[in-house]
Design goal:
globular, five-stranded antiparallel β-sheet, NAD(P)-bd_dom_sf, three-stranded parallel β-sheet, alpha+beta, 2 domains, Rossmann fold, GroES-like_sf, Quinone Oxidoreductase, Chain A, domain 1, 5 helices, 206 residues
Length: 206
């Protein structure tokens, strides 16, 4: 079956470019779970991937470090056609075709079934940024950080990870101090739950 995908290629002189291409299933892995991709996200890492060879390790490759969609076919008994799933990381956009395509095929271990109350669009609205933010909050809690130990600083506050971290921490009862280089985003950050806004220049000043 043919499908559309953004394909990153590298020329003989090392220049990386990306274009919209028509591929077919032979471009995918020989085995695994085939997913009709509904949504992916645009992350900082995705932009870096097209700027140099540090991220993408094999060419040609479909970028996109995450995706959500529905299972089309599966050689893994844990997944059936129609299951809504999400994938993030696992070498997507590095050594394996990623989410910027209408179809993907990955090992079942890379997929997580979505609960029935979260659709594929909502899953990617949270995306890798939300996943990273939640892992960071869990790591803080595991390290013994709690709301009664004082303010907590979120840097890069207006970015994807930072903005979700503010919301999570505020909901958990932390007093959040948001550091940003975009002072015009102050009202937005307060709406997310930040109690105080700091210009990041203050943190980097000598």
């Amino acid at each position: 079956m043919s499908f559309r995908a953004i394909l990153a290629t590298r020329s003989d002189d090392g220049a990386i470019s990306a274009s919209l291409q028509t591929l077919d299933d032979t471009a995918l892995s020989d085995s695994g779970v085939t997913v009709a991709v509904d949504w992916s996200t645009l992350n900082y890492k995705d932009a870096v991937a097209l700027a140099g060879p540090q991220i993408i390790q094999t060419f040609p490759l479909v970028p996109g470090i995450d995706f959500a969609g529905s299972v089309v076919s599966s050689d893994d008994a844990r997944f059936s056609p129609g299951d809504n799933v999400v994938a993030t990381g696992w070498g997507l956009s590095q050594t394996h075709h990623g989410g910027y395509a209408q179809r993907a095929r990955v090992p079942g271990d890379w997929l997580v079934k979505l609960p029935t109350n979260i659709n594929t669009r909502d899953a990617m609205a949270i995306g890798t940024a939300g996943f990273t933010a939640m892992l960071s909050v869990l790591a803080l809690e595991h390290g013994g950080v709690s709301p009664n130990r004082g303010d907590i600083l979120v840097t890069g506050a207006s970015g994807g990870v930072g903005s979700i971290a503010i919301t999570l921490l505020a909901e958990l009862g932390y007093r959040v101090v948001a550091s940003t280089g975009k002072p015009d985003e102050a009202d937005y950050l307060r709406k997310l739950g930040a109690s105080e806004i700091l210009d990041r220049a203050l943190l980097s000043a000598e």
